[in-house]
Structures are given as C-alpha cells and as structure tokens.
Write a structure and sequence with these properties.
The complex is a heterodimer of chains A (1009) and B (620). Chain A is mostly beta strands. Chain A is built from nine helices and 54 strands. The chains are: A mainly beta (1009), B alpha+beta (620).
Chain lengths: 1009, 620
C-alpha cells in the first residue's frame, strides 16, 4: 500500500473538485484547484475511479504506480442526463413521460426578473405570455399545452425543491436555479395529482455537491433600458389634420371646432419625450458551496433591481438561500430554504394620460415652467412628465413590500434489513406576507388642486404547510430488473387572510399611510378583510420498472381529497401508465453506429383539477351598500347559487413521443404528440338576467387539446480548438377546442364559448374594409347601416338577401363571427457559437399566424377614436382622396365614443420573430487568472430585444408585437385602456398602454474562486 | 390527522343561508333600494328615457348610444344597444331578492310592514319591465313569483295582462295595505308611495287594454283582462287610488314653490316620494367615487349628458371665465343630449308667469373665477367689451327671440351673440344648437364640501335622483278623468291640473337672474288652462313639470302619442355659431313602442336559435 498522487484534466485544463475513489472502498479524495490529488493507503492492484459531473467516469488500474493521471472526457449524453421527475430523479434515457429539462445556464441567457420570462421560447408546448411590463408586476402567464379549464386556473403547479410553491412570481431569482424540469403529460404529472393538472414545473436551486471543494462565485450585471419603440401617436400637424377631417361627414364642421384652453395649433409637443427615461436593471449574487464526504452545503444571497423607463416605478429583490444536506449513519437530514424581500414602488400614474394628451397642448407657462393642468376641448390633463412626477416626492407614494420564506425540511432513513428501502419525511413550510401602502397628497396628480388627499394600507398573510410521508424502494435484481417504488401519503393546508383600510383627508400629510386613523370616521373610503382556507389530502403510489434498460414501465395511482368540492364528491382516484422502448439498446441496433439513442414512448393518464375557488359550492351573497339620507346600511342579494353536487374536473391525456440522438449525439431531439380530453369542466355559469341570479359554479362542458411538439439540438461544428456551433430549436402547435357545453348547447355567447372553437376566441364583426361609393352594394348602405356614411367600417353581412339583391335586414348581432386567434405554430431557438475563449449566444422566439389584439388601435382604448377628442394613434384613415385607407373616416358614425365596429380595428396578424437576447462573452485564460487566485472569470455583453422580424404589427406600428397587458385573477383588465369585455375572451393578452417594451444593453461579469 | 382540513368553514363570505336570518332579510330590503341607483342616475338608462322624445335629441358630443336612441336617421336601436337594456339587466335580480324576502320572512318572523317593502319593489320592477319590453317572465326558474334557486337557463315570457294581474297589481295592492303611513327610514316607501305606483299601473294597464292607436304588444295577447274587467274599470281605479292619496297625504305635500322642488339644499323634502339616494358623507355608502366618477354602475351621472361644455366660454380677451364647478348650474359637461327648440318655443312658451322654465334650466352662466385657487377677482371684458366680474352673467339664454341679436365674430368663442348695451353674451331661444343650449338646473350637481372653491365637479352627483313625487297623483287622476273616470266634486281633470299650475305660478327666486323674486301668477296660469283639457295638454303639462327627469318616453308610450309628439324637431347644428334651426324627422315605428330584449339575455339563454328568435320582440 502506498500513497498515490496525480492530476485530473479534461485534456485542455485541470478539473478541480473531481472525485477519486478506490473502487470498492470508501477511500477517496477530491482534486484541488490544479486538478491534483493525493490518496493514501492504496493497494498496488487497486482500481481508481475518477468522476466529475458532466464527464464520463473513468476507471484506471494502479498497477503499482505512485502517480496516476487521468483525462476525463465530456459526457455529451450526461449534459442533460439526470432528469428530475418529482419524488426522485431518473436518467434521461429511462424517462417515459413527457419531460423537458433546462439547466440554469440556459435560463440565465436572458436576464430578467423571474424565471417565467426566462422560460419564454425555451420549451416546446410551454407558452409564456407577458401580461404586464411594469417592474415587479405579476407579469407572465404560463400555459403548458394550452388551456383546459374555462374558468378555473390554468396555471401550472410550481414545485420548488420538492415542495409546492405558493409564492409570488418574482420571488425566485433565476440565478439561484440549478435546473428546471417541466412535466407535461398526465403520466408525468400524475404523482402531483390534482395540483398538477395544468403541468408541473420543478425548480431545483443550487446545491453543494458531496466531496466538492468549497467555491465562491459572484455574478453581476448592469443594464440600461431604452424604449424599444414609442407608441405611434400623431404629431401636431397630423393631429390638426385629423381634427379637420372629422368635418368630412359633418358638412365641414369638425367635431372639436374650438381649441381647448391650452391648445395652440403652432405647438407640437411630443408628450412621450417628456416622460421616458433610461431604465436600469442590475443584479448581484454570490454563493458559497462545498461538500464533505457525507454532506454538502450551499448558501448565497442576491440583489436585483429594475427601474422602468417611466418615472418613479421600480422593483427590488433581496434574496437569501441556504441548503444543507448531511448523512449521519443510516439517516440523512437536510434543509432547503429560500427567502426573499421585495420592494415594489409603483407611484407612477401610468402612460395613458400622457398618450391621450393632444400634441398641440402647450405644456409650458410663459416663464418656461410646466403648467399644472392643461385643457383639451372635452378633457383636462394633469401634466404628467418625468419632471412633474419626480418633483412630487413624498406627495405620492405607492410601496409594496413582500416577504416570503419557502422551506423544505427533510429527514430520510434507510430501513435496516431491506436493502433499497427508505422512508423520507418532507415538511414544507411556506409563508408570504405583503404590505401595500399608497398615499396621494392633496391635488397631487389630480386636475383639481383641492382634491382631498387619500391613502390606504393593506396587508395580507399567506401560510401554507405540506407534510409528505414517502417510502421508496430502489433495487436492481439480477443486473437487469431495475425497480423503483414510491408510496406517498401527504396532507396540505393553505390559509389566506388580508385586510385593508383606505381613507381621505389625512390631516397631516407627513403621515402618508402610516396613521390612517388620524382621518375622521366619515373620511374612511373603504375597509375590509378576507379569509380563505383550503386543504388537500393525498395517497399516491408509483412503480417504475426497467428491464435491461430496454423496456420501461411507469405506473402511478393517486387519490386526492379536496376541501373545495361538495361533501360526497371530495375524493377521487385516478391512474396513469407509460411505457418506453429503448430501441438503440437492442442487440440488432448494435451495428447501427450513427444511432446513439432511440426511444419510443407512450403514456396514458388521468388527472383531475379542483379548479374552483374556496367555498364555490356554497353559493354567495353580493353586497350593496346604501344610504337612507344620513343612515347608512348594507344590503345583500344572492348573486351565486349553491351547487351541492360540484365535483372534480377530469382530464385524460394520451402522449406519444420519440427521443433520438444521432451521429455521435451531434443531432438529438424529441418529437411528441398528445391529446388531452377534459371533462366535467368546472365553471362559473352565467345565468340569463331573467334568472334573477348572476351565476352558479357547475361541472359542465368538455374541452380537448392536441398538439405536436418538436425539439431539435444540433452540434454543427465541434472543434475544441476552433469553432463550435450549437443550434437548438423548438416548435409546437396546440389546438384547443371546446367539445361540448352544458346540456347540448353549442354556444354560450355571453361567455364567448363555442363548441368546436377554442376556449379563447374573439367574437366580433368581421371587418372587410371600408364603405366606398364605388362598392356594388353601396346603394344598400342605409339598409345595412341606418345612419351610416361612406368611409365607415364595412363588416360582413351573414343574412339573407331579397330578390333584387338588397339585404333583408340591417347588420346586427347575428353577424358577429368567431375569430380563432390561435397561432399556426410557435417556438423558440437558441444558438451558440464559440471560438477559443469567445462565445456568442442568441435566443429568440417566434410565432406564425394567430391574431394579435392591440387595444391601442381598437376604439375601446380611446386612442383611436378618430374624433380629435384626445390624441390619436397615427393611422391611415379614409378621406375622399384616400379611399383605400385601412381606418374609417374620422367623425363618421359612432358606437360609443369611437367609430362603429371600432373594436375590429384592433386585430392584427400575430406573426413575428423576435430575437430576445444576443450575448458576446469572453472567458479569461485559466493560466492568466490563476495568478490572481481565481478559478474562472467571464465577461459578457448582451443586448436584449434587439430586433423583430416578419411582424405585420411591427411593420405598421414600429412596436413590439408581444403583449404587455392581460387580465388579473378576477378577469379584470389590468390596463385602463383595454375595454375588451364581451368580445374578447379574458384569457387573451393584449397590447395596451402599459410600460413600453425596452431594448436593454447589459454588461456582466461572472467569477469563481 | 383527521378529515378536518377537507371541511369548509367560510369566515369572510356570505352564503345564501345568511339570507334566512333576520339580518339577512333586512339586508335584502336594503339591496332593493340600492338597485334603484343602477337605473335612476345611470346615464344610459336616462338617455333611453329622454333622447328621441320631444324633450331631448342628441348633442354635439353624442356617441352612438345617443344617436341610436334618436331614431332620426343617424343610428338605430337593435338588440345590442346599451341604453334600453338597463331595466332588463337590473330588475330581475331585485325581483328575485324580493321574492326571497317574501318567502323567508315568514320563517324568520319579519313584520308585514317590512315584507311589504319587498312586495312594493317586486311590483315596481315588474311595472317598469312591462312598460319597457312588454310581457316578461314571472317564473325565474323555480316557479311563478318564487325565489329562484334553480340553475335553469331558459326563460318563457308571460303576456302583459298576466304580468299586471298576477304580479304588479296584487303586489302593489298588498303593499298599499301593509306599508306604514310614515317612512321607516329617510326615503323608504310608504302606503302612499305604493298608491302612486298602483294608480299609475292601473292607468297604464287601462291604456294598454284600450290600445287607441293599435300599437302591437308582445308576446301576443288579446286586449282582454283575465279578471274580466275593462279599460274603464281600471281608469276609474287609477282615479280612485290617486284621489284617495291626495285626500290622505300622510307625510307628503306639494311644496309651496316649484323652485324648491329641485333646489338642491332642499333635497329629500315632503313632495319627494321615492328617489335613488346618494351621499357625500361616505364613499362606501354612496356606492361611487366622491372624487372622480366614471359614469359607472352606481354613479349618478345623468345630468352630465344634458350639460353642454360651458367651459369653452371665453371673455372678449380669451380668458376661460366660467370654470367647471360643483354647483347646481355647472357640473361636468358631456354634451350628449340637447333640448330641441320646441321645448323653448312650445312647451315652455310662457317663461314669464310660469316659474317652471326658470326652475328647470340653467339660463345664465356666470364668472366664477373667484373660486379658483388662488382666487381671481379680475373683471374681464365681456360683450361690448364691458367688464364682468365674479358672479356676473357671462352668457344668457334669452326668454324670447330678439331680432336685434348680433351673432357675428364668434363671440365668447362659442359663436354667441350680443345686444347693444348688454355686458352678457346672449343666445336666442330660436338659435339653440346641438352644441350650445341651456343646461338642466333641476338635476344639477350640488356639494357642501367645496370650501369656497370649485369643489369636485367630476364625481357622480351626491344628490338623490328623483323618481316619484306627490304631484304626480294630480296628473294621474286628471289623466284618468280625461279618459272617462267619474270624478269627485272639486276634482275634475281641470281642477286637479290647476292645483299644479297654480303652484307653478308662484315665484320666490329668479334662478336666471339670481335674485329674489316674490311674485304670484297663479291666477293667470289657472285662467290660461284650457277647458276641457285633453291628453295632449296633460302631456305638455307633464313635460313642464317633469322635464328631463326620465318620465318622458314612458309617458308618450303609455298614451301612444310618441310618434305624434316626437315626429319632428328643430335645432341648429353642431358648429359653434350655427343658429339656423333645421328640422329633423324621426322614424318611429309601432314596434319601437317596445324596447328590444337585450342581446345579453339571448346570449346567455340555453335554448335553440328559433326559440331565441321568438323570445325577441318583433322588429329587432
């Protein structure tokens, strides 16, 4: 026995932290910075096993040498080898369900506030829609393989380090994420039962590794954010021409014949120039991790800040992360904890007022100072500019502070006597508390300088626990029969409470919202409190069986009981099964060298969904207050009927997939097809007015989703000394359809649900151009459109005709048509080009077809009224000399305040290709930085949102074709200028007057020692 | 761990069981009063009751909702039109709440006088529905007049006589019997409030049975009373109930001066029997913002529609001398509805003796820059370059056309005129246009928290919106008498109308001149009353008394005079300075006497397209 030393390298440089172990013993060591190791007491005939994550393990016989060096080879397959599947991990080769894995590095390619945005375009079948561009906003919706529920949640379950995550969208820093796995089909999600009905996203945060040398890493970047494109509003001359043109249909008299008090035809103000600035985004995070023979640890902290291009709006996050894992004999204990403290400042006033101000308003007094209020003919506008907003200071405050702590404590024991049997207890403890306060000083941001001050303070507390008891049995028999069995019994409970108080006329404005009780009782403008609680109990069993790594089987059964459903219908049990065949591992494939892996998969599973709110089975009373003179009273009325038969919503999913790796794994990919049928859909059914009650929640209707997903990765060039070029692309389609509705009904126009059409549709008139005098049917204009005029929007008539060719009726509600906004396909791509120490990455996202809704262009947004009342989007409108225009004649027949059928002006072809980020990086030579005591050092520069191609909307408006506004949980449009109720399903995000998309220029640094 | 975590214990939401407690029932009655706000004060419902009648047409800033209602070739009323949908969307919920109260009250042991408030509202709401749409369903899903707890999504309409004889008349009769003489709380209904609606329901049903102009009904039904009575019987009932109320007024009375009926500091007075209340004391109980209204669900915003944009008025040197103010003559201008010239030349021809013109309109707009912050007491040059200071008239609408008026030179920036020697700009009644016209003072904004400034003119009004007044008993009885009801001594149609006209002749304050005016022209007005009086005269008199309060469309439809009275109107155009009246013709078809069933109802019904077609009123 002797002492052996040596160096472990990967052919180009040393591998620090690699494991060296004497085979069959516990005798091992870890390489240092320089890849060197020393190992005592090694028998001369021993075999050393060298291993490191991402490399193929290597066994080297000692053969009585005292120096043993090893060169480890990159394990291409292992780059994504281990897949987290929930309650365990699996080799990618063995997976039979539909799972997409992403490592932390690829998520970090687009630096954003949260992982949802980082996920955009990265995984087939995973659609990320931006629903708000305000810093700190809940700003993304995730839909995995389409929407299933009509009114229930379609959000996937997020599992953070094994525990269902209930925190805010911005609570997890993407730089803390080690890997992210998305379970898409029912056979994969079955273990999470009803909570996983909309797919599951498993997030694993960074951990130390056993035996890993302690390392410190620090990452940072700074980004400057500039407006991607200004909203295309009219300038002064264009606007004056529009006002003039409103007289076309009115005997030459414009609608707004007089200028407002502050309007001047010689003024040409670009209000957007007065408000936009450069935004900032920065991140710092550090971590220390390491491991010993029987344990590992990692801890770190981070700071993220994002400011808007609009004044006084920003978001900051402070995060802390701790992970410990320790083996003590047969026991293992661990803790995973993530904490965050968010501060969101939303004191801005939004952009709508700014956009609506006419360009001929003069914002300045004669002495050059800004006016307080300017008057248009029909509207006054509080002058909203960067300097006026910034000058407010404490006069207007809106601060939300959130604290979240998400913890998983676990203990594990190997049961003695039965090899491979373990018991594990997971305890998840989550808590999130928020405090939101606002204050508006007297007359601040208000056209009335004497408007009373107002303030409010609200707080909420969310607490949640999960207890999971797990038995696992993992053993391989006779080398070929691999068995893994998991049994689970769990229960969880969530409680939510909040309260708020709003008041006005706070006597001392210094109090802001901290002393609301200083206001008089009669100045309390609102107060309230809420409480909600729900529980879920589950029993689950899963068996995975593999034979010879060729034949694979996963079977799962789960039973869930939910508090949200009616007594008698609370419990349900459902199965899932999936099969796989690794063809490449068959004997007859041995000689087919260009095929490295080839697997066929098929799965079937049922899941259920408790997609109803707490207490939905009980019915509800609405509240209406009233004053009898000076006597105040609260009234009640039934607005929702109880439903004692409310039960679970079910989905059945069929999933078929093929995974392959070809040409030495230089081309790999996955193709999948799925079909999901959802029955007994839970929804809040709107009753006709004549019922006297608003709605009830019932199990009614069925939907179907089917789709194809393709992911391809190719290593096009592979020269470690020269160029390497990788390219990845994913493509997917999802066809969603309502297959039946209550009692055989084929449409519910009130809710915009139509059998045979997707859940999210547009139901509106079909815009077929404008009425022109040379139209063959112009003679019937007054029949089609009583009071109509030339140049108005022409919509398709679907009724009958008389013998002379005239229509039998005017255009009416019967002519509304269903517009399917679904894109033909969507996807994303990423590519990496490396030469020596340089690398270049590009990440993009694309969509073909589909309908984009822009409420800027539809009349509901009040920025395309074409009346000259407020500023107008610069559009090509009809005049007697411009008869083939796209938009109607200004001042023609109206519905509401805008042109008749003005909602149809907001629909655009949704196609686009957008490069989300391009990064150029440089990794310093290791021999250079070693002298500075560093392990690695990287510098990079990124431009986010550099350009957009193939987008008709971008071509017309210059703007980003991605959405920036959506609906909140209650279905209310977040954007005041949206107004899409009644003709656009609320699940459709829109482009409104939110914070504009930015183009970001980012410089970053990563270092490690 | 037990099954406890699977049990629900709601702690902050009310479930329908609460409706079976005493507090729940009382809360249900409160909700019935609240529902009035969704109609009375709501701008679009208001639009539907006035635009298209002889009282209002569309104004310069009218959107499609107002042009549609005008039926003058600039739009059309169809099932998706929002203005006529209000009662359909609001009333059935109230009817169901009322039925729930009536059913639950017995079990909970609620006083009959309280239950009678629910009966009143069920009758009230059905009466409003039947006047607006024709026959409507009595069975909401759980049986006729039963509290609906079913999830049934169909609907079957009853006929007009069924709705009257099964719902409206029995409910209101019982309400008259059980309601107290005195209101339970400020503004709650009494025996006489129920009598007013019972009398009006008898009157309206009698007209329907008689059907003098052969206006169609829907669902089709013979003009026969299921109880075997005739129109004359119901006209007589109307007369009897109305005169009983006049003889037993309870807490109600006619005020001495018409001016006081709508003078805001006097709100909730003895003549007012029903209103949709609001308060400036609490935003929570007001149901709408006290700072900036959005003309939303509970906003009392009707008067904004009839308010022209007076803030466009400029002094001779271009200063905005009339500021937006939370005061009865001003408020928030939307310029959606304008009164045609006939209102000033015919309805209110007598502006000198009859105080009601002066007590209805804003006829002078005054310099209010002293209320700015900081105040501005400057006198600005006005007409003929004569300076005009705070409180002085900047613009006056003249009582009679003055041919000497000089409209040249876009005066006051709104194309006003001037008269030699006068400091105020002026407009002739014959020169009223869609953009400059007298505002509606009676419903105007009023706040007590202006603190000497301009206040919060952009909030919904915090005044109660008037719905019913004691004076209407005189009109109902008179109309029944004209239609043949036997009269009592001293209560002929002419006697009754003359009570109203005598009051109209009494002045205590001149609103246009803003000065005290003690004058009694009662005798002149009474003498000028024609003899005998006719339905046409009653309709004119109703317009003078209730102008712009949301009565007009219903009055013209009840008497089947809409197409005749509102067939044409004159008004000058939308341009400032246009004072040349044009005459417009309305196309009012017999089917228009019923409003369309709103598309929202049809969309939400789970029935075949054919059934939807037959559910809709013909013509839409």
């Amino acid at each position: 026995q002797s002492t052996i030393t040596g160096t472990v390298t990967d052919g180009t440089g040393p591998i620090p932290g690699a494991n060296v172990i004497v085979k069959g013993t516990n005798n091992g060591a870890v390489t240092d910075f320089d890849g060197n190791y020393t190992l005592n007491n090694v028998p001369g005939d021993a075999i050393l096993v060298f291993s490191f994550v991402g490399y193929e393990a290597k066994e080297v016989p000692v053969n009585n040498r005292s120096q043993v060096n090893a060169v480890l080879e990159n394990d291409l397959q292992s780059l994504s080898e281990v897949v987290v599947i929930g309650y365990g991990t699996q080799n990618k080769e063995s997976v039979t369900g539909s799972v997409v894995s992403l490592d932390g590095e690829s998520l970090e390619e687009v630096q954003v506030a949260n992982f949802q945005q980082a996920l955009q375009g990265r995984a087939p079948g995973v659609q990320i829609t931006t629903t708000s561009t305000r810093p700190g906003a809940n700003n993304a919706s995730i839909r995995i393989r389409g929407v299933r529920s009509l009114s229930g949640s379609n959000d996937p379950l997020i599992v953070l380090n094994g525990i269902p995550f209930s925190g805010g969208i911005n609570d997890i820093s993407i730089n803390d994420i080690e890997s992210l796995d998305i379970l898409k089909d029912a056979s994969a999600t079955a273990i999470y039962g009803s909570r996983g009905a909309n797919g599951v996203i498993l997030i694993t945060t960074k951990t130390g590794k056993k035996g890993q040398k302690a390392t410190f890493s620090y990452n940072t970047y700074y980004a400057a954010k500039e407006v991607f494109a200004k909203y295309p509003m009219m300038n002064g001359p264009q606007f004056l021409a529009l006002r003039e043109a409103t007289g076309i249909t009115r005997d030459g008299v414009p609608i707004y014949q007089n200028l407002g008090a502050d309007e001047d035809p010689n003024v040409n103000t670009d209000w957007q120039d007065l408000i936009y600035g450069t935004g900032l985004q920065t991140n710092h995070d550090f971590s220390v991790s390491g491991g010993t023979e029987n344990g590992s640890y990692s801890f770190g902290g981070g700071y993220f800040k994002e400011t808007s291009v609009l004044p006084v709006e920003d978001f900051q996050r402070y995060s802390l992360r701790v992970q410990v894992d320790q083996q003590i004999g047969a026991f293992r204990f661990g803790l995973n904890s993530i904490m965050n403290w968010n501060v969101t400042n939303a004191a801005g006033t939004g952009l709508y007022g700014n956009l609506s101000a006419t360009p001929i308003l003069d914002p300045y007094n004669e002495d050059g100072s800004l006016k307080r209020v300017v008057s248009m003919p029909a509207d006054d506008f509080w002058v909203t500019t960067r300097s006026t907003l910034e000058a407010i200071g404490d006069g207007r405050v809106n601060l939300q502070k959130d604290f979240g702590t998400y913890n998983n404590l676990y203990g594990e024991v190997s049961i003695p006597g039965i090899d491979g049997l373990k018991y594990r207890l997971n305890i998840g403890l989550n808590l999130r508390t928020s405090r939101d306060g606002f204050f508006n000083g007297q007359g601040v941001a208000n056209i009335d300088p004497l408007s009373p001050n107002n303030a409010g303070n609200s707080s909420s507390l969310f607490q949640d626990y999960v207890v999971e008891n797990l038995l696992t049995y993992d053993k391989t028999f006779a080398d070929k029969h691999k068995v893994n069995i998991v049994g689970l019994y769990s229960f969880q409970n969530s409680k939510f409470e909040d309260s708020f108080l709003n008041a006005r006329n706070i006597p001392n404005e210094d109090f802001l919202f901290y002393n609301l009780d200083a206001a008089l009782l009669e100045d309390i403008t609102g107060y309230g409190s809420n409480y909600g609680e729900n529980g879920l109990k589950s029993v689950m069993g899963r068996a995975i069986y593999q034979y010879d790594n060729r034949y694979l089987l996963t079977a799962t059964v789960r039973a869930d009981g939910s508090s949200r459903l009616a007594p008698g219908n609370k419990w349900v049990t459902y199965p899932a099964i999936s099969l796989g065949w690794n063809i490449a591992n068959e004997k007859f494939m041995e000689d087919v060298e260009w095929v490295n892996s080839l697997k066929l998969r098929a799965g079937y599973g049922e899941t259920s969904n408790q997609a109803v709110n707490n207490y939905a089975t009980l019915g509800n009373l609405g509240i209406r207050n009233y004053n009898f003179g000076e006597t105040f009273a609260t009234g009640y009325f039934v607005n929702e009927l109880p439903n004692a038969t409310l039960g679970w919503e079910f989905s059945e999913t069929y999933n078929y997939g093929i995974d392959f790796g070809l040409f030495n794994n230089r081309l790999s990919g996955t193709v999948e097809y799925y079909l999901t049928k959802t029955n007994d859909i839970l929804y809040r059914v709107g009753l006709p007015s004549t019922s006297g009650v608003g709605s009830f929640v019932g199990n009614i209707g069925a939907t179907e989703n089917k789709g194809v997903e393709v992911a391809l990765n190719a290593t096009i060039l592979d020269n470690p000394d020269g160029f390497t070029w990788d390219f990845g692309v994913n493509l997917y389609t999802n066809r969603n359809e309502i297959t039946s509705l209550a009692s055989g009904q084929d449409r519910n126009e009130g809710q915009l649900w139509f059998v045979g059409s997707p859940i999210n549709v547009i139901y509106d008139f079909k815009n077929i151009g404008l009425w022109n005098e040379d139209d063959p049917d112009f003679q019937y204009l007054q029949t089609y459109e009583p009071g109509g005029n030339v140049g108005m929007i022409k919509v398709e008539y679907t009724g009958e005709f008389n013998e002379d060719g005239s229509p039998v009726r005017q255009i009416n509600a019967d002519d509304r048509q269903i517009i399917d906004p679904t894109p033909d396909f969507q996807g994303g791509f990423n590519t990496r080009l490396a030469y020596k120490n340089f690398d270049f990455n590009m990440v993009g996202v694309f969509q073909s077809g589909g309908t984009l809704v822009s409420t800027l262009y539809s009349s509901g947004g009040y920025l395309n009224l074409l009346t000259g009342r407020r500023n107008n989007i610069d559009v090509d409108y009809w005049t007697p000399t411009n008869t083939d225009a796209k938009y109607p004649v200004p001042g023609g027949i109206q519905a509401g305040d805008g042109p008749k059928y003005g909602t149809t002006m907001g629909y655009f072809d949704g196609s686009f290709l957008k490069v989300r980020a391009m990064t150029l990086g440089y990794n310093f030579e290791s021999n250079l930085i070693e002298q500075a005591g560093l392990q690695s050092l990287r510098l990079y520069a990124t431009v986010q949102n550099p350009f957009v191609l193939f987008s008709p909307y971008h071509k017309e408006s210059g703007m980003d074709p991605e959405t920036n506004s959506g609906s909140d949980g209650a279905g209310n449009a977040q954007n005041s200028a949206t107004g899409t109720a009644g003709y656009i399903s609320r699940g459709i995000a829109t482009i409104g007057t939110n914070v504009p998309t930015t183009r970001n220029f980012l410089l970053g640094l990563n270092l490690k020692f | 761990c037990s099954d406890d975590i699977l049990e629900e214990n709601p702690r902050s939401v009310f479930t329908p069981e609460f409706f079976q407690t005493e507090a729940g029932v009382e809360g249900g009655i409160t909700a019935l009063y609240t529902h009035l706000r969704f109609l009375y004060g709501a701008w679009n419902y208001y639009n539907s009751t006035e635009t298209g009648t002889d009282e209002y047409t569309w104004a310069q800033s009218a959107d499609g909702n107002f042009k549609d209602m005008d039926l003058s070739g600039v739009g059309s009323i169809i099932s998706t039109s929002a203005p006529p949908a209000g009662p359909w969307f609001s009333c059935f919920g109230a009817i169901n709440t009322a039925s729930g109260i009536i059913e639950n009250a017995e079990a909970v042991g609620i006083a009959e006088s309280l239950v009678a408030e629910a009966r009143f509202f069920r009758g009230f709401d059905y009466f409003l529905l039947v006047q607006t749409y024709g026959g409507v369903p009595l069975d909401l899903g759980s049986g006729e007049l039963a509290f609906n707890t079913s999830t049934f999504r169909g609907s079957v309409r009853n006929t007009v006589p069924e709705v009257y004889t099964k719902a409206i008349l029995p409910d209101l009769q019982r309400a008259v019997q059980d309601l107290p003489e005195q209101p339970r709380l400020t503004g709650t209904v009494t025996k006489n409030t129920a009598r007013l609606y019972l009398a009006k329901a008898y009157l309206t049903y009698a007209w329907w049975l008689q059907n003098p102009n052969n206006i169609p009904t829907y669902p089709e039904a013979p003009r026969q009373d299921p109880d075997g009575r005739d129109a004359a019987y119901y006209f007589q009932q109307a007369y009897n109930v109305a005169t009983t109320a006049i003889d037993n007024p309870g807490p109600y009375s006619l005020l001495e001066y018409f001016y006081d009926v709508h003078w805001a500091p006097n709100d909730r007075h003895a003549e007012m029997m029903l209103y949709a209340d609001h308060t400036e004391e609490s935003e929570i109980y007001n149901g709408a913002s006290l700072g900036f209204g959005i003309s939303g669900a509970q906003d009392n915003a009707s008067v904004w529609m009839a308010t022209w944009n007076y803030t466009q008025i400029r002094s001779a040197d271009g200063v905005a001398v009339v500021q937006r103010e939370a005061a009865q003559s001003y408020g928030r201008p939307w310029t959606r509805m304008a009164p045609p010239i006939g209102v000033f030349k015919n309805t209110f021809a007598d502006k000198e003796n009859d105080s009601r013109y002066d007590g209805t309109f804003v006829t002078s707009y005054r310099n209010n820059r002293d209320k700015l912050s900081p105040p501005d007491f400057t006198e600005y040059p006005n007409a003929n370059n004569i300076p005009v200071g705070p409180g002085e008239a900047v613009l006056t609408f003249l009582d009679q056309d003055d041919p000497a008026i000089d409209y040249s030179g876009n005066k006051a920036s709104i194309g006003a005129g001037s008269l030699a020697g006068r400091s105020d700009f002026v407009i002739n009644p014959g020169g009223i246009s869609r953009v400059v016209y007298p505002g509606l003072w009676k419903l105007g904004t009023y706040r007590t928290d202006n603190n000497g400034g301009l206040g919060s003119p952009n909030a919904g009004l915090t005044r109660p919106f008037p719905i019913a007044k004691f004076s209407e008993f005189y009109f109902i009885a008179a109309e029944a008498a004209v239609k043949g009801a036997a009269t009592q001594g001293g209560k002929t149609a002419r006697d009754l109308i003359n009570v109203i006209r005598a009051r109209a002749g009494k002045w205590r304050f001149d609103n246009g001149e803003q000065e005290v005016r003690m004058e009694d022209n009662s005798a002149t007005l009474v003498n000028n009353t024609p003899n005998p009086i006719t339905i046409d005269f009653i309709l004119q008199e109703r317009s003078r008394e209730y102008f712009g309060e949301g009565y007009r469309w219903y009055d013209l439809v009840r008497t089947q005079k809409w197409a005749e009275v509102a067939a044409t109107y004159s008004i000058a155009g939308s341009a400032y300075g246009d004072h040349t009246p044009q005459t417009f013709t309305r196309t009012i078809e017999p089917y228009h006497y019923l409003r369309p069933v709103p598309q929202g109802q049809l969309d939400a019904m789970d029935v075949s397209d054919a059934e939807k077609d037959t559910y809709q009123n013909p013509g839409y």
